[in-house]
Specification:
Number of strands: 5
Bound molecules: zinc ion
Order of helices and strands: EEEEEH
Structural class: mainly beta
Helix content: under 10%
Largest sheet: 5 strands, antiparallel
Number of helices: 1
Mean pLDDT: 84
Distance between the termini: 22 Å
Radius of gyration: 16 Å
Length: 124
């Protein structure tokens, strides 16, 4: 499982440590991961659309262990391939934003009441 914030490429800028990063390019896809040569942590990933993802744990680690409100998740993506159910009120897109939403089997409840991808502009 990989919880992350997603940004447009021009919304992310490396402030320091560029010489301590290496890049892994997926052999069959367009995904790239940039990881720390010192500790191995993923610092940033780039998907096939050119969007950057920053691991939530990295952001929290740089904010005294807490995720700042402005970076807190607002949707779940690719929920159809989850490893476990997540019990929160966030919209859960089965795949990409704007596509079908997860419907809770027991209640028939659609998790869509808190926003849409369009509400994600603060993360872009
Ligand atoms: Zn490191």
């Amino acid at each position: 499982m990989y919880a992350a914030t997603i940004w447009r490429a021009n919304g992310v800028r490396l402030m320091c440590g560029a010489g301590k990063l290496n890049m892994f390019k997926h052999p069959n896809g367009q995904m790239q991961r940039h990881f720390c040569l010192v500790c191995g942590d993923v610092v940033c990933s780039t998907n096939g659309l050119g969007l950057k993802s920053i691991p939530n744990q990295l952001i929290a680690a740089n904010h005294a262990g807490n995720m700042p409100e402005r970076y807190r998740p607002t949707v779940h993506l690719h929920y159809s391939s989850r490893l476990m159910d997540v019990h929160d009120e966030l919209p859960k897109y089965l795949e990409r934003p704007g596509g079908p939403l997860y419907i809770e089997p027991a209640s028939g409840r659609v998790h869509s009441q808190l926003g849409t991808w369009g509400a994600q502009s603060r993360q872009a």
